[in-house]
């Protein structure tokens, strides 16, 4: 087994080279299987309990059957069949208990998705660049919001309000040393020192985010893709880009479409996923990590220093401290300007592997912010006779400012996305190109709910009576109060979707019975199949749901901000004196919102604790990351890491080294999310190697999800180019599958790619071959369908000739398939 690992891990260097005269065209074929979300075992993928790891590690690896471990040394044994291999990558998204901490990063992951949801564009270089800038700024506000929420809990509620109030401090004896009354004027009891001590909590949060980002950066972004030797002249490379397909000024040439730079022989429709440096964002993530870490520390420093500076500006205050306060605030403002400038700066290169790092910036910016944080602690902890804490901590309108900036950024992002979509309309794009702004709005809402929920729960815990302390800022109470109206909208939408699904299920019953002529009808089974088909169509309704929820969230958030700013009172208090129904609704929304946000916080903590201890729950969270962390961290460095920056290079290396070392050709077979990885890896191959690869996808979300939500990278032009560049591509799907679907390629290639929908279940009733009722498979077990083996056999047979089969420029002639559908030549 070790020898097999060495041969395969070295790209087959010890394997026999192609014989003279073969030109590498008749070598052994390889079938590379890639699983989907949730993962599986090598034994299940290869249908053999005896498997060995031939290359890779415990995180991601390629496995073979034990009998195939030395297949390179026995090519004569594989003349009529391929060497099956399985690439297992599930541990990239589900690992040890520390992965439970990734739940804290959910808003960051969502805003990073918005970055890649840019619509396709034509000749809009500056607009494309502006789109990326707005998303990165929205991501920066989320970092500030999360840290500000921690400051609200530790500095305002605990150190300022509760420790400064006798009734609250007596109820929580562990705060006795911070209370001026209970400690009899102890050293830590002054407001500034209480704030300085409490600042350790948000500073620790900033340190944790920095550590998680640094640790995953070293494990994920440091995986280098294959460096092509052909260079830009192979006709498939693009110029450096900032993550959107836009080149910096010094490298920019003519821009035909999507902000891409044309090089001689380049296909302008080629997706950015084929650029050598696309899956290597090490430099950008390091720069953003430094900027966001500095922003977090500066936020904590401002929370400590601003109240002290405000007290020092009172008439008759000490002139020295007043001057130091102004200097500190000026330094913090200058630091904030630098952070924003760093976030706005471009630097992601996709044309080549950008191995450089901005070492001075990455090292000095967080250290400078840390120095200002220490200075703020010293300044805030200085002795100030007569200073006492009362009411809320000054500066509670910080949350209002953050919410206002986030709303303006989302509106501006929507305008930019609309302009891009108009330049190159795509009828299939989600929400008419506004998917990115809608998802960015949801990310901001998630951040607000998480920070506000923690503040509300801590406030209720500290002051059960609601009389000893003032509690969190009024805006957070308003934000909690808009949750019940938002849930009402969601419930109405769900009711409308349920009604539509029920109607569709009734309409499907006649089609199901016509698909199985001559069989005795079973009303119960017909209803189950029809309902499964109808439920599968809900995926196509997701854009409408996201659009309405996002728009409602924006309007309710704006209303909450206006209400908090104009009244400076909680909704129930602000509604006093109005109509009884209005006052009652405000009281109900405020009470119910507080309860709901508390319930959400409890569920969040419970889920995180369970995920920390339970591997199965951790795998469930990993499924969420399978979908949400496919993309590089281009907008937020604290998002969960991009597993594709490891998986795509793994697959690319495996395919390229196999074809080079053995002269063989291969079929890469991907299920569900594995098909997305397979397509991305195929784009990364050199054109000559790509022509030796056949692609088999099943249950694939390539067009149904990725093509609609990420049109700039998986749109019709990109998928159409992939179809033309690989040797052959076949796609299988079912009408009962809620995830997979047809490719709908431009030019109506029809059966060139998509096979007719597979029957599900395979048999309607009991037969001699299936004496027991066949299950409804939906998204799983595509290998159980005879069509899978048939299509795989066709692809492997096509790969055996010495030269690739002829490509069809028009619609391929259809031939009957085993299931009564049609299948075509590639």
From TrEMBL:
Keyword list, A-Z: Membrane, Transmembrane, Transmembrane helix
InterPro entries membership: AB_hydrolase_fold
Leader sequence segment: none
Taxonomy, superkingdom: Bacteria
Taxonomic lineage of the native organism: Bacteria, Bacillati, Actinomycetota, Actinomycetes, Kitasatosporales
Organism: Streptomyces rochei (Streptomyces parvullus)
Region (Disordered): 1-28, 223-270, 798-826
TM region(s), chain numbering: 130-150, 195-214, 290-311, 323-344, 365-382, 402-421, 433-455, 475-498, 542-565, 585-608
Name of this chain's protein: Integral membrane protein
Low complexity bias (residue ranges): 1-16
SUPFAM superfamilies on file: alpha/beta-Hydrolases
């Amino acid at each position: 087994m070790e020898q097999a690992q060495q041969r395969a891990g070295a790209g087959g260097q010890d394997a026999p080279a192609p014989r003279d005269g073969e030109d590498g065209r008749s070598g052994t074929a390889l079938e590379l299987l890639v699983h989907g979300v949730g993962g599986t075992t090598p034994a299940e993928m290869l249908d053999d309990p005896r498997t060995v790891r031939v290359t890779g590690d415990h995180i991601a690896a390629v496995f073979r059957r034990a009998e195939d471990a030395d297949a390179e040394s026995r090519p004569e044994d594989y003349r009529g069949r391929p060497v099956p291999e399985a690439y297992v990558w599930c541990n990239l998204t589900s690992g040890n208990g520390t992965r439970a901490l990734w739940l804290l990063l959910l808003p960051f992951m969502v805003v990073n998705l918005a970055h890649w949801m840019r619509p396709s564009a034509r000749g809009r270089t500056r607009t494309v660049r502006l789109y990326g800038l707005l998303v990165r700024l929205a991501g920066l506000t989320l970092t500030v919001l999360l840290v500000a929420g921690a400051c609200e809990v530790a500095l305002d509620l605990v150190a300022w309000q509760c420790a400064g109030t006798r009734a609250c401090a007596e109820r929580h004896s562990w705060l006795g040393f911070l209370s001026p009354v209970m400690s009899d004027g102890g050293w830590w009891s002054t407001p500034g020192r209480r704030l300085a001590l409490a600042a350790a909590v948000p500073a620790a949060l900033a340190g944790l985010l920095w550590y998680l980002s640094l640790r995953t950066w070293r494990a994920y972004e440091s995986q280098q893709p294959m460096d092509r030797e052909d260079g830009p002249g192979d006709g498939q490379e693009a110029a450096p880009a900032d993550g959107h397909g836009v080149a910096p000024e010094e490298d920019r040439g003519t821009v035909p479409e999507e902000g891409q730079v044309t090089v001689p022989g380049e296909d302008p429709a080629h997706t950015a996923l084929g650029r050598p440096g696309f899956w290597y964002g090490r430099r950008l993530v390091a720069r953003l990590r430094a900027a966001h870490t500095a922003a977090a520390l500066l936020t904590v420093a401002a929370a400590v220093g601003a109240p002290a500076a405000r007290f020092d500006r009172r008439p008759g205050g000490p002139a020295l401290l007043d001057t130091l306060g102004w200097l500190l605030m000026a330094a913090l403002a200058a630091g904030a300007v630098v952070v924003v400038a760093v976030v706005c700066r471009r630097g992601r290169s996709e044309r080549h592997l950008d191995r450089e790092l901005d070492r001075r910036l990455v090292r000095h910016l967080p250290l400078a912010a840390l120095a200002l944080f220490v200075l703020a602690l010293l300044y805030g902890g200085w002795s100030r006779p007569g200073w006492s804490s009362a009411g809320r901590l000054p500066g509670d309108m910080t949350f209002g400012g953050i919410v206002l900036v986030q709303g303006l950024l989302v509106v501006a992002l929507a305008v930019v996305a609309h302009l891009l979509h108009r330049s190159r309309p795509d009828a299939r794009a989600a929400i008419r190109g506004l998917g990115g702004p809608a998802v960015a709005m949801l990310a901001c809402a998630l951040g607000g709910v998480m920070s506000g929920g923690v503040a509300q729960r801590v406030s209720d815990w500290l002051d059960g009576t609601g009389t000893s302390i003032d509690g969190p800022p009024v805006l957070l109470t308003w934000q909690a109060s808009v949750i019940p109206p938002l849930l009402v909208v969601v419930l109405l939408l769900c009711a409308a979707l349920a009604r539509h699904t029920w109607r569709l299920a009734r309409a499907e019953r006649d089609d199901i019975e016509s698909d199985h002529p001559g069989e005795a009808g079973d009303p119960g089974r017909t209803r189950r199949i029809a309902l499964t088909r109808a439920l599968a169509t809900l995926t196509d309704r997701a854009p409408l749901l996201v659009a309405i929820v996002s728009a409602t969230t924006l309007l309710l958030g704006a209303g909450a901000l206006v209400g908090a700013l104009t009244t400076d009172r909680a909704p129930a208090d602000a509604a006093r004196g109005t109509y009884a129904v209005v006052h009652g609704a405000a009281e109900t929304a405020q009470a119910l919102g507080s309860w709901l946000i508390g319930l959400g916080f409890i569920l969040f903590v419970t889920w995180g604790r369970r995920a920390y201890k339970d591997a199965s729950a951790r795998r469930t969270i990993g499924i969420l990351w399978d979908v949400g962390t496919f993309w590089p961290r281009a907008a937020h460095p604290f998002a969960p890491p991009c597993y594709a920056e490891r998986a795509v290079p793994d697959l690319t290396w495996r395919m390229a080294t196999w074809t080079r070392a053995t002269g063989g050709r291969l079929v890469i077979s991907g299920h569900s999310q594995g098909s997305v990885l397979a397509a991305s890896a195929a784009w990364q191959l050199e054109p000559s190697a790509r022509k030796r690869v056949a692609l088999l996808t099943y249950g694939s979300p390539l067009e149904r999800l990725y093509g609609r939500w990420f049109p700039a990278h998986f749109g019709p032009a990109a998928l159409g180019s992939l179809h033309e560049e690989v040797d052959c591509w076949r796609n299988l799907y079912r009408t009962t599958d809620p995830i997979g679907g047809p490719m709908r390629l431009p030019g109506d290639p029809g059966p060139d790619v998509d096979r007719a929908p597979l029957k599900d279940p395979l048999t309607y009733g009991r037969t001699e071959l299936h004496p027991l009722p066949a299950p409804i498979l939906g998204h799983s077990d595509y290998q159980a369908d005879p069509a899978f083996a048939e299509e795989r056999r066709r692809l492997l047979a096509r790969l055996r000739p010495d030269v690739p089969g002829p490509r069809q420029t028009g619609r391929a002639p259809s031939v009957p398939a085993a299931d009564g559908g049609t299948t075509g030549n590639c």
